[in-house]
Amino acid sequence: MTVSDFDDYRPPEPPRRRKRGGKRRRAGTGEGRAEAPVVPEAEFTSYYGRPVVKPPPWGDPIALYLFLGGVAGGSALLGAGGQITGRPILCRNSRLAALAAIGVGGAALVADLGRPERFLNMLRTIKPTSPMSLGSWILTAFSAGAGVSAVSEIDRMTGSRIPLGPLRRLLRGLEGPAGMEAAVFAAPLSAYTAVLLSDTANPTWNAAREDLPFVFVSSASLAAAGLAMITTPVKEAGPARALAVLGVTGELIATRSMEKNMDPVAAEPLHSGGPGRMLAWSERLAVAGGVGTLVGGRYRPTAAMSGLLLLGASALTRFGILRAGIRSTENPRYTIEPQKKRLAARREAGVIHDSITTTE
Known about the structure:
The chain is an all-alpha fold. 65% of the residues lie in helices and 0% in strands. It has twelve helices and no strands. It has helices at 60-85, 88-113, 116-121, 131-157, 167-184, 186-198, 203-207, 212-231, 238-261, 273-296, 300-328, 333-348. The chain is globular. The model is unreliable at 22-30 (pLDDT under 50).
């Protein structure tokens, strides 16, 4: 019987099986047959296939800034070490490297922001709870110290031909304190970008929030040490070799600790696809550069080759972690599964009254 004109468009219903009286019994037992599950396994998807977490609009300019910020911070630290230990060539090369790295890195940051005034707007106030606000002030303070010490080195290299006039005496007096001031902000400059990444809803970055700053600081150490080993004679590069070995050791330990503390699902993007290959090669280059530093770091060719390997390892670490985080936003599984595990753990612990998702 047709009750509507639209009934003709309905697909025919499959024939229904008539129920027989009672359930089938297993032979020799009084138990009924186990019923097959009716509800299929849940598939992790989202509306219209869109990501659950919005991917960050960051590309290679930000990855370059992450890498060069680490180079700048580590170089300022080496420059202060050369200043204290009486190694003028190491001090000079490290100060120049710090200024060049922070200059190019800052240009990459401004290029990603789109307009330079956006960076200046972040200096209008200080917000202690914002990694972006604190990072802007750290970058500014570091650049001031690195700039003063490097300009003094450049003036000395040109035979005091830069037309500074009476400012030259002031510049020479501020050179040492400015270099030490840059060294004070070296570690915060290297670490704040890790805090900035992990202080987001990004599944992979947020899961690594406890250990990612240690990974970035170690990566900065081996990058700056590698650059100094390339540019500085081996007789003055002793602190750079020591920093390189410490950086390699620290990065390997921090990376292992980070992956161990992360949810296994959130850590998957670190091992798959392009980011996984980058991070795997980063580890290989770091180990090779560290071994080369220990075995042949006192020989100029070996030191330069080891320095190149360490620089490559640090760059791959920054690019790999950035792209792994972006990749983790593409699949809803990386967001949903860790959330379900955390929810189950909270319920087992009896925490049910502080969130709408755990209220019974």
